Amino acid sequence: MKKIVALILLLAFAGCASESSPGGLSEREAGLIGGGGLGAGLGAIIGHQTGHAGAGTAIGAGAGALAGALLGEGMRRQKENTKQEIRQEVMQQQYQQGNAPQYGAVAQPQVQQLPPPQQPQELKTKYNPRTGETFPESYQVDPKTGEQLKSLR
Most C-beta atoms within 10 A of its C-beta, which of 39, 73, 126, 150? Predict the structure, then answer.
């Protein structure tokens, strides 16, 4: 009879399990049930060896349920922390790329800034024979070395 009840309970819990939420239970609740079952089993074994199987089962079930609930809650918190870190990282990447959401604001058309028009550069027609550097027509000497410039023509 005990085997049939255990089999029915096992099938009931296994039939409700899913990957994201085992049996529709939170991590804490799943840990409580699993820890309680393991604790009861270990308590019964130890209690049987000492001659107090009922007391061992009760103590083991309580201690196992408490430990399982604490472990399950730790797992839940870790999962929430990981989700929060991922959210922050995604938001940070979006804001760094300039894709910050503008709530309630009308999108303004992007106007491309053109570079300022360049001044026409003087034609470099003189050079320093020692350095090879070229200069505009108006220069007579190299401003860095003071050497006389020669014409390129």
Answer: 39
